[in-house]
Amino acid sequence: MASLVLPLLLLCAASQAILMFSTSTAAYPSNPGADTTDCSLSDKHEELIPVRREVYDGGRIIDISHRYTPDLPSWDSMGGLGQFLWLRQSMKNGSIANFSEMKLPTHTGTHVDSPGHFFDHYLDAGFDVDTLDLEVLNGLALLIDVPRDKNITAEVMKDLNIPKGTRRVLFRTLNTDRQLMFKKYYDTSYVGFMKDGAKWLVENTDIKLVGIDYLSAAAHEDLTAAHLVFLEGRDIILVEGLKLDDIQPGIYSVRCLPLRKQCQPTEVSSNKEKRVSCASIEQEGYTPKDFEMHM
């Protein structure tokens, strides 16, 4: 497991991990204890209460990453993430500063997959998250809803009629409706890509970034097969565990920056996925023709 310390936490805080820009002003669901409107602290010094927000800039900026909590679902775990953060040094105990340490599985929360995730020879060769193409992770994207009654098959992909030239697609599924990322147990009934759906995407579209709203882009039934199709060519990036509640389908400008850490082949944790630390999407007013030209 990767051990992440305070400098990394500060990076996440400064970057406001996964941001989404949207013209929508509708209320956005927040985590318990979060406030979506006011970022100011109380005027009374004795009532310093931090405000944890999901929405910024009057609803224009929306965080679409999932906050790390002990109840955040973790891969193949029925008990959630559990304790992941410790206060290693405390000013109350005489230290000059407060110093935290974080330890968690890399396949947790909002994260990206690298080619080494399912290909051992890619892992050995060093194809980790540090080698992912930032150009693919940044640019115009299409947020679409997929049928709620099935996994993403070749038939589903055909029926979606994704415009030619589209390079980045965020797929919102039944996972969002069921709020699976807010349930601490790993649910194998999540919606994802079947092998034939992944194959159709690779062979018939220009999509290079695939975003989805649960811990895996591949359906549990085709977990290995679909991942192999997606990752074999090393040109498709999977962004998993997105928070896509109450966002209108449409064209957005996506910004997605994974944490940089070089993978060492000898590391047991392999560090093949990393949490997305900074991203944004801003709704664009393009027509379908303009969209195809700009993608």
From TrEMBL:
Subcellular location: Secreted, Extracellular space, Extracellular matrix
Family: Belongs to the Cyclase 1 superfamily.
Gene3D superfamilies from the UniProt entry: Putative cyclase
Protein name in the entry: Cyclase-like protein 2
UniProt-listed Pfam families: Cyclase
InterPro entries per the UniProt record, alphabetical: KFase/CYL, KFase_sf
Biological-process GO terms, alphabetical: L-tryptophan catabolic process to kynurenine
Record SUPFAM superfamilies: Putative cyclase
GO MF term list: arylformamidase activity
Signal sequence coordinates: 1-17
Keywords in alphabetical order: Extracellular matrix, Secreted, Signal
